[in-house]
Amino acid sequence: MKRIFKYILFALIAIIFIGTFVFLFVKSKPEEILYQELSASLADISRTAVVTGKIEPRNEVNIKPQINGIIAELYKEAGEPVKQNEVIAKLKVIPDMNSLSAAQSRVRLAQINMKQAQTIFDREKALYGKNLVSAEEYDKVRQALDQAKEELSAAEDALEIIRDGVSSKNATSSSTLVRSTVDGLILDIPVKVGNSVIQANTMNDGTTVATIADMNDLVFNGKVDETEVGTLVEGMPVIISIGAIAGCTMEATLEYISPKAVENNGANQFAIKAAIKADPSSKIRSGYSANATIVLQSVSQVISVPESALEFSGDSTFVYVKNVTGEYERTQVETGLSDGLKIEIKSGLAEGATVRGNRIIEEK
User: Fold this and answer.
1) What 8-state DSSP symbol labels residue 348?
2) Residues near 19 by Cβ (< 8 Å), separated by ≥ 6?
3) Residue 234 and residue 108 share a domain
């Protein structure tokens, strides 16, 4: 019995010894390293710049009143189309007291001058009928009377305009009516009925009654970094994407590059402008945020590999190419344009070649 127990003990020790040896042998073997296999293929590669900015109408026109007054009526609302000379608002005049007093004084003086001119004319006319004055003298007196009448008429018109905002002789062009100066869409009416408004003069810009723009003539305004502005040329095609409208892209043409940089968060940037070819039926609103994609460089149908396949050593670039035996050979290549994912291979690699990519890490 003791002998059997001894054999069993020896067997267990042998099994443990052999198992430990096998385990250590397996652990000491180098693990097989697996890599992704990538193919060198023909592709179109382009380097682009993405610029953020806004969609805006090329020209916005601010409509201002011709006189000081109070908004009595508004005939239009923001978002409505408007034609040139169409009435937007009507004003109630608040005459300036100094101007009103001066206009009244001018009328009284004109009345006095006309009365005197009429008296002189009547006297000269009677004398002319008796051939006691010359025709030349008579014509001068008649001309003076006509001038006095014209001055009185002008003074009365000026008084009516200051007092009422309109002359009875030119009622169709009343300055109490605020009219659009262009065709377009009303973007904003920043005033309400009852608001006081003032006309533009040398001291101030005046009150804006409405802002109007042609929404069929839109531009993209943005800023590009100084590292990319050197590759831009006026006339380049631009693709505009509007984030607020899903799937909305529009073609545009780069038409302006600022010659002067502006500093933005410590970086020098240059303003750019692109003319948008918008569909008239599209509902594009002024002020939409947008991205402009500009193709800086592009090549077509060139041999390319993913950038992850490259190895850099000094000034040289290498890839590992799979040979007929299934092994990877380190091969020097000349690279070209990159889009950040794929890179052009100018020489050193044939189309269809298999190259080594990133290492595959197996889950344990």
Assistant:
1) S
2) none
3) no
**Does one domain contain both 205 and 219?**
no
**Which two structure tokens, joined as six digits, stand for 149?**
């009448």
Which residue has tokens 């545009």? 252
The domain boundary residue, chosen from 267, 294, 321: 294
Please indicate, yes or no, whether residues 79 and 208 belong to a single structural domain of this protein: yes
User: How many domains, the chain?
Assistant: 4
Q: Are strands 184-188 and 69-74 parallel, antiparallel or unpaired?
A: unpaired
Angle between helices 97-129 and 135-164 (to 10 degrees): 160
CATH number of residue 268's parent domain? 2.40.30.170
Please list the pLDDT of the chain residue by residue as tens digits (364 residues): 556 666 666 666 767 767 666 555 555 555 556 667 888 899 999 888 889 999 999 999 999 998 888 899 999 999 999 999 999 999 887 776 777 788 888 889 988 988 998 988 888 888 878 887 888 888 888 898 889 888 988 888 887 777 766 666 655 556 788 999 999 999 999 999 999 998 888 788 899 999 999 998 999 999 998 888 888 889 999 999 998 888 888 899 999 999 999 988 888 999 999 999 877 677 788 899 999 998 888 889 999 998 888 888 888 899 888 888 888 888 899 999 888 889 999 988 888 888 887 766 554 4
